[in-house]
Amino acid sequence: MIDEFLDDGPDAAGALADVARIERMLQVIAAQGRDVSYSEMLLSLGFRFTRPKMRALCRTLDEVDRRAAAAGQPELAALVVRESDRLPGQGWWTGRRDYQGQWTGSEARAFLSRIQSATFSYWQAHTPASNPKEDM
Question: What is the rounded CA–CA span in Å between residue 20 and residue 136?
Answer without folding.
Answer: 16
